[in-house]
Design a protein that fits this description.
The chain has a domain of 92 residues: Transferase(Phosphotransferase) domain 1 (Transferase(Phosphotransferase), domain 1, Orthogonal Bundle), CATH 1.10.510. It is built from three helices and seven strands; from the N terminus they run E-E-E-H-H-E-E-E-E-H. It has a three-stranded antiparallel β-sheet with strand order 3-5-6. It has a two-stranded antiparallel ribbon with strand order 1-2. The protein has a two-stranded antiparallel ribbon with strand order 4-7. The relative contact order is 0.17.
């Protein structure tokens, strides 16, 4: 996973399997990921608190988002759920792309560059995806 590291993508640290005790006393085996901490929180909350970005600030963050997404695409991964809630900030207020739960191959499952599944958050989907 180290070749996937990029300054604008939330860093993977470790994954494993463990057990936890449910409320009924039974144990359940779960898989887990340990990821970098994004101390600045979501960019969604940052904008809600501070207000709209100046053009200069917007360019600064947009460039970081593009750099992170470009790296993902070069690694063969399409995020497929980019939204302000999945753009985190580190302690230096730099973008960290997070939540690759809907990610898939950039060339699609059959290699033609298209994805046929409707994934993501409805309020952020393009109309042509919603309408089919």
């Amino acid at each position: 996973m180290s070749q996937f590291n990029h300054e604008n993508v939330l860093r993977y640290i470790y994954s494993g399997e463990g057990e936890y005790v449910k409320d009924n006393g039974k144990t359940k085996t779960v898989n887990f990921l340990v990821l970098e901490i994004a101390e600045g929180g979501e960019i969604f909350d940052f904008v809600a608190t501070t207000g709209a970005f100046s053009e200069r600030e917007a360019r600064y963050y947009f460039k970081q988002i593009l750099n992170g997404i470009d790296h993902c695409h070069l690694m063969g991964i399409a995020h497929r759920d980019l939204k302000p809630e999945n753009l985190l900030l580190d302690k230096g207020y730099n973008i960290k792309i997070a939540d690759f739960g809907f990610a898939g191959p950039v060339n699609g499952k059959v290699g033609n560059g298209y994805s046929t599944t409707k994934l993501g958050t409805l309020n952020y989907m393009a109309p042509e995806i919603i309408l089919g």
